[in-house]
Amino acid sequence: MAREQFARLFAERVLAARWPVIIGSLVWVAAATSGISRFEFAADYRIFFDEHNPELLGLEAFENTYGKTLVSGIFFE
What is the tens place of the pLDDT at every residue in 34-62? Predict the structure, then answer.
C-alpha cells in the first residue's frame, strides 16, 4: 500500500512539473554522455601481464615462429 501511494505521489509530481523534468533529464543525459568520446578499447592483452610472465613469453615465442595471423586461423578454421 505504501509503495502504491509513493508511486502515485511521484507520478503526480512528475506530471505537475513535466517540463522541468524533461529539461532536467535531457541536461543529465547530455552531461553523462559528454565524455563518451574519450572512452577507448585497447585490445592489447599484454598490459595485463608482467613482461617476464612465462605464458606471455611462450606466446610471443610462438607468434615469432608461426606469425600472429596463423593463431587466429587455427582457432576459427
Answer: 988 888 877 777 788 888 899 889 888 88
Residue 55: domain span: 45-76
Phi, psi (degrees; rounded to nearest 5) at 38 = -90, -5
- Same domain, residue pair 25 and 49: no
CA 77 to CA 52: how far, in whole Å? 31
Give the chain's domain count.
2
Same domain? 53 vs 29: no
Is the C-alpha dihedral spanning 21, 24, 30, 35 positive or negative? Answer: negative
